[in-house]
């Protein structure tokens, strides 16, 4: 199963690979070079398919939990100042996604979308300390019953050139539902109340909509 954001790229890559393989077969006479080139195009197609995969998962909503919005690895757990929306201290949990991870973004909590804003910016590597403030990014805040306002921020990385955000202010957000997509390597920051009980540790691998980041 593939995410809808990949339909155009997958189709274009498929056409390119088929045309390239036919061209190689027609004009490249050296056997080993022919196999290398054909294999390279096949690998390209496989990489694109795996990047846009959207595996079917059994999600269970839990209002006492904040789920990871994405697949990846926890790279930050710390108390920080959040200047854009809260203008105060929050507990930040950041998840880094490599190009090999599933890149679907999911609502970490359920409730009402009270803030959704896109910011143009740079393309620093996603783990750079300034990436959260200077890179292209979107900020979404969902008002939940147990945690109050929970902010998550999609951040473009050095390879991510497009962030897709479906969240619109005033709409209802269903926990674990698809809320966007980031193309080709990125990071998501989640900002929680200071009294939230963190359930993950640094370098832990997490799954979007399945791994609990914190509890009330």
Q: Topology of this protein?
A:
Blueprint: H1 7-27, H2 31-51, E1 65-67, E2 72-82, E3 88-97, E4 104-106, E5 111-119, H3 131-134, E6 137-144, E7 148-156, E8 162-165, E9 172-173, E10 178-183, E11 186-192, E12 197-198, E13 205-206, E14 212-215
Antiparallel strand pairs: 1-14, 2-3, 2-13, 3-11, 4-10, 5-6, 5-9, 6-7, 7-11, 8-10, 12-14
Helix pairs in contact: 1-2
List keywords for this structure.
3 helices, 216 residues, three-stranded antiparallel β-sheet, Glucose Permease (Domain IIA), eight-stranded antiparallel β-sheet, elongated, alpha+beta
Q: Would you give an account of this structure?
A:
- This protein folds into 2 domains: 4-51; 65-215, Glucose Permease (Domain IIA) (Distorted Sandwich).
- It is built from 3 helices and 14 strands.
- 21% of the residues lie in helices and 37% in strands.
- Helix 1 packs antiparallel against helix 2 (31-51).
- The model has no long low-confidence stretch (mean pLDDT 90).
- A hairpin with a 5-residue loop joins strand 2 and strand 3 (88-97).
- The strands form 3 sheets. The protein has an 8-stranded antiparallel beta sheet with strand order 9-5-6-7-11-3-2-13.
- The protein is an alpha+beta fold.
- The longest helix has 21 residues, at 7-27.
